[in-house]
Structure of BTB domain-containing protein:
Amino acid sequence: MSAEASVGSHAADSAQSANSQPAFHNSDELRNRGLLGSKYVKLNVGGSLHYTTVQTLSKEDSLLRSICNGGTEVSIDSEGWVILDRCGRHFGLVLNFLRDGSVPLPEDHKELDEVLKEAQYYRVQGLAQLCIGAMQKQKDVFETVCRIPMITSAKEEQKIMASCKKSKLQNNRGNNKYSYTSNSDDNLLKNIELFDKLVLRFNGRVLFVKDVLGDEICCWSFYGEGRKIAEVCCTSIVYATEKKQTKVEFPEARIFEETLNILIYENGRWSGPGGLHLLDARGSGASLDEEGATGGERRVRRIHVRRHIMHDERGPGQQTVYKD
């Protein structure tokens, strides 16, 4: 009886082993043969769920086709989702390209590079070539050579002026209390045009900033080592036909000279011997005021181009100088 029981137990174990063996082969077979027997595919790409067809995934000779025909092993969870260990942010774009043959690409260079990386990983050559072409077009597009900051607040001005070499043009035509002389508008435009030319000429060496919120009508300020070095005021008050007028000058040579002067601060040349001596410049036709607190290094050259002058159109003996 014991021998028969042993034989029966052995037969039962063999039967149980035989029943469990096909289940293991079925799982392994499912992993190896891919998705050949399926029409629809459920993809879990880094937590991003996508539902598509085998036909869509097989349109190009890519990694996705290899997954479908069993050439590449994949993990399939208990609910039938194919697990792909990639970021799913741009996978929808990859699918849309396989569906339509073309797809709108992001304009941002960083995102475009991310799409290219995904296309290369999935070996979707058509999308990869599209991305490379779009990136090449971005390189060919003309990019702005210079960027000019625009001051919008006093706090922003302090932050911008804290670094080394700056040139600021403050122009606000609306600050005028009186009428302008006949040449003032032309001279104001000439100052703005000179500003644009200097921006292009000294790009990368001097930062040029525009200020349209200040109190001055037209005034140039020059900064080095985080402080103001010089100032060229281009406005003056004249008295004509018994009334005051505002006159805007265009001291081109003085502005250009002060722009060159702040280049002395380039690469720390200001700290060497004779640096102060180089900045002690005087120009004809301009009045210069200096403010100092602790020696020459703290001085600010304030140049006012003929600050209070007489109007030349008035007759002899009728010219009057108005002083504040």
Observations:
- The chain has a mean pLDDT of 75.
- The radius of gyration is 39 Å.
- The longest helix spans residues 2-32.
